[in-house]
């Protein structure tokens, strides 16, 4: 036991003496949380639009005024003809051209209808859908105004909306669970696989193997520091998102921490498994990044919704442990549900962990080639 | 000049003698294109809806029928229990709950306004807003239809309506693959150039072979150029592979000039390689470089506008993006490929890339020390 503790101490020293590792463990999560929280957003903010007003009357002026004063849009240019639309959109500063047809006001009054046409820059589909949906909301508002109070009473079905789980519609609710999932995988799987393969590459593994420490103790000693560090890391992320974004933990904290430990354990066993397969650090890095991080970022549903992906991608996401963990953590943190709602996912993680440990034991070789 | 050529030859030999690296160079563009491009789509095909219809009259069935008829909503469950609906939302089986109260049909027939409750799963805020918008649209259409049928149109009210139509230029069907492909090309070039070049230099440091070069009369700039050129060429070859796959597999149109695309990617690559070599002078081990590199790549990519529009970022972030080469190449690639923008439209972005490339390369030459 004393021998083992000495070994663990050596591993801790390895980590603490490398300032870069420390920066990675504590700096990357902080920066990611802040980046996602403040930078990655899809809201429209004073998006530049151009108007092509072929009518130039009172009503078109009112409507364009309404669009520009909504806070979503800003007047980028006033065009005089269709040929200019192509030009301004190609310059990329203006994202949409709003066209009022000829005799707009007169038609509205005499025919009861007049049309607005939007030409949106489809090279950015997110932006384009947002632009058209915001403008159509503004126009629907205007239509209601036109119809006057008389119509209000005949619009009989009046929907009342309630936003569950996230009443203020914060974007951060979506990605904090994702960042936790990703960071744990990064630290536990990637870092442990690298430290173990490094010992192999530098030949120091041989020294460890001939020492009286048993193989299981070596592996355990290697992963224990990372287990502790990543746990501290999670607590830091939770505190950070609580203080900066006021993201609470709605469900039971004890359950959340228990699930986190299970996930950390799973990531560590994945890291060990990778290290038994990889011959050197470069391969370990490659396997971890391409085989693990990339699918996690893409297919776990933390940035990109999985439901709209092609079928094979959805199948892969079904066997991806991080995807299950994101469901668990979202349920506990944001929805506040109990163990009953996440036992299936937990069971999957457990089985996966055991399988990874089993495979690593089978692959682990005491003898060097 | 001859010295540089020898150095380049040495690099190529070294790269292709490494069996793993030699294969990875050609595998990465294929994998990235086939994996990333189809995966990234923010399109919402359908939303699962749970209906609590306490009324069960023809009027309420007409409303739910209209929802069922829209391809956007999929009614996964009809129930009478609010409890059950909430459980379904907890379990992620539905994202919307529509509650029609008792007496809905009767009150509507009498002209009394009826509130209906809508619950939205708002964990994903933007999806929540969008699906609520669609649902509200269906309800408003239902209202208007009743009006048009003459059910209680008060005298003196004449309906004046502004109608709206729209078209999407450059990407008529809002195909996300067309949007992602140029962006993924940027990531491809960034990842290949940055990681290969940086790791290469650090490896020489780790194994001590850099000493052997340091004692030769090779000049600093020759050394850096000799390191950059092979990776510049590899990056451009990978770009060509990625581009071919993208165009033939996903049918992404190519409107602009291929030459311009390669030219701007080359300038971008010089900047990326300069930065990689600069940073590698700080790292002692490959592991250190990988982690810092990984970190930079994440920041560059997230802030480049690949998933989210640059214009939505706070002003300070937009200022930081002035030195983010990824933000420029993302825009340039999309503009050339999808819009057919020419040199004239892109000149400011290109100029910025040239400045960034010059700055990073100068830094790399300056930081590199021949003395250990």
Question: Can you describe this structure in just a few lines?
Answer:
The complex is a heterodimer of chains A (369) and B (372). Chain A is α/β, with parallel strands linked by helices and 369 residues long.
Question: Can you give a write-up of this model?
Answer:
The complex is a heterodimer of chains A (369) and B (372). Chain A has 369 residues and is an alpha/beta fold. Chain A folds into two domains: 2-39 and 171-363, no CATH class; 47-154, 3-Layer(aba) Sandwich (abc type-2 transporter like fold). Chain A is 68% helix and 10% strand. Chain A contains 15 helices and five strands. Chain A has a four-stranded mixed sheet with strand order 2-1-3-4, with helices on both faces. The model of chain A has no long low-confidence stretch (mean pLDDT 85). By secondary structure, chain B is an alpha/beta fold. Chain B has two domains: 2-41 and 176-367, no CATH class; 47-148, abc type-2 transporter like fold (3-Layer(aba) Sandwich), CATH 3.40.1710.10. Chain B has 14 helices and five strands. In chain B, strands 2-1-3-4 form a four-stranded mixed sheet, with helices on both faces. Chain B is elongated. The two termini of chain B are 25 Å apart. In chain B, 41% of the residues are buried. The model of chain B has no long low-confidence stretch (mean pLDDT 87). Chains A and B meet through helix 2, helix 4, strand 4, helix 6 and helix 7 of A and helix 2, strand 4, helix 6, strand 5 and helix 7 of B.
């Amino acid at each position: 036991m004393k021998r083992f503790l000495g070994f663990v101490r050596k591993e801790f020293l390895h980590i603490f003496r490398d300032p870069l590792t420390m920066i990675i463990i504590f700096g990357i999560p902080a920066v990611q949380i802040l980046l996602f929280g403040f930078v990655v957003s899809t809201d429209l903010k004073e998006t530049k639009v151009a108007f092509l007003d072929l009518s130039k009357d009172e009503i078109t002026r009112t409507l364009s005024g309404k669009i520009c004063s909504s806070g979503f849009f800003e007047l980028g240019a006033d065009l005089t003809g269709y040929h200019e639309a192509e030009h301004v959109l190609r310059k990329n500063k203006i994202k949409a051209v709003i066209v009022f047809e000829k005799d707009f006001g007169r038609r509205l009054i005499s025919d009861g209808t007049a049309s607005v046409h939007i030409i949106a820059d489809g090279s950015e589909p997110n932006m384009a859908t947002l632009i058209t949906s915001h403008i159509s909301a503004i126009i629907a508002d205007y239509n209601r105004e036109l119809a006057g109070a008389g119509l209000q009473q005949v619009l009989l079905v009046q929907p009342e909306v309630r936003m569950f789980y996230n009443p203020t519609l914060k974007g951060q609710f979506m990605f904090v669970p994702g960042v936790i999932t990703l960071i744990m995988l990064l630290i536990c799987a990637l870092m442990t696989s690298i430290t173990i393969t490094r010992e192999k590459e530098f030949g120091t593994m041989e020294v460890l193997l001939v020492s009286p420490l048993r193989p299981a103790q070596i592996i355990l000693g290697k992963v224990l520091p990372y287990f502790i560090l990543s746990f501290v890391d999670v607590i830091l992320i939770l505190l950070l998102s609580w203080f900066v974004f006021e993201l609470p933990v709605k469900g039971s904290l004890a359950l959340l921490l228990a699930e986190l430990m299970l996930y950390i354990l799973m990531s560590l066993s994945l890291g060990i498994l990778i290290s038994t397969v990889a011959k050197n650090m470069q391969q370990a890095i490659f396997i971890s990044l391409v085989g693990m991080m990339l699918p996690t970022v893409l297919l776990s549903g933390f940035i990109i919704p999985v439901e709209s992906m092609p079928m094979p991608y959805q199948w892969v996401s079904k066997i991806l442990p991080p995807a299950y963990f994101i469901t668990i953590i979202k349920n506990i943190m944001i929805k506040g549900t109990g163990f009953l709602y996440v036992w299936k996912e937990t069971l999957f993680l457990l089985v996966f962990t055991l399988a990874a440990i089993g495979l690593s034991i089978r692959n682990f070789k005491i003898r060097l080639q | 000049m001859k010295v540089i050529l020898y150095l380049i030859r040495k690099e190529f030999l070294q790269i292709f003698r490494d069996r793993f690296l030699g294969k990875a160079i050609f595998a990465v563009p294929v994998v990235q294109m086939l994996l990333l491009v189809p995966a990234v789509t923010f399109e919402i095909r359908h939303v699962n809806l749970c209906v609590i219809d306490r009324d069960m009259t023809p009027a309420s069935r007409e409303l739910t029928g209209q929802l069922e008829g829209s391809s956007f909503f999929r009614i996964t469950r009809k129930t009478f229990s609010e409890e059950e609906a909430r459980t379904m939302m907890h379990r992620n089986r539905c994202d919307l709950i529509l509650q029609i109260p008792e007496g809905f049909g009767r009150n509507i027939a009498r002209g009394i306004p009826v509130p209906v409750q809508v619950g939205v799963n708002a964990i994903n805020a933007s999806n929540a807003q969008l699906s609520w918008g669609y649902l509200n649209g269906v309800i408003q259409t239902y209202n208007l239809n009743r009006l048009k049928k003459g059910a209680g149109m008060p005298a003196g009210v004449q309906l004046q309506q502004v109608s709206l139509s729209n078209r999407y230029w450059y990407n008529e069907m809002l195909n996300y693959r067309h949007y992602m492909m140029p962006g993924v090309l940027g990531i491809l070039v960034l990842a290949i150039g940055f990681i290969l070049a940086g790791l290469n230099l650090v490896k020489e440091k780790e194994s001590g072979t850099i000493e052997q070069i340091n004692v030769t009369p090779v000049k600093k700039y020759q050394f850096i150029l000799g390191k950059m050129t092979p990776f510049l060429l590899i990056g451009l070859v990978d770009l060509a592979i990625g581009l071919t796959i993208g165009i033939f597999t996903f049918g992404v149109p190519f409107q602009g000039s291929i030459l311009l695309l390669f030219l701007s990617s080359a300038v971008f690559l010089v900047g990326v390689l300069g930065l990689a070599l600069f940073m590698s002078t700080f790292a002692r081990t490959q592991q250190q470089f990988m982690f810092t590199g990984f970190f930079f790549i994440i920041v560059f990519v997230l802030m480049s506008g690949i998933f989210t529009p640059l214009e939505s970022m706070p002003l300070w972030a937009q200022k930081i993006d002035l030195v983010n080469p990824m933000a420029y190449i993302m825009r340039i690639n999309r503009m050339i490929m999808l819009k057919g923008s020419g040199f004239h439209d892109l000149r400011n972005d290109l100029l910025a890339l040239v400045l960034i490339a010059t700055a990073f390369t100068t830094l790399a030459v300056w930081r590199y020390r021949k003395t250990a």
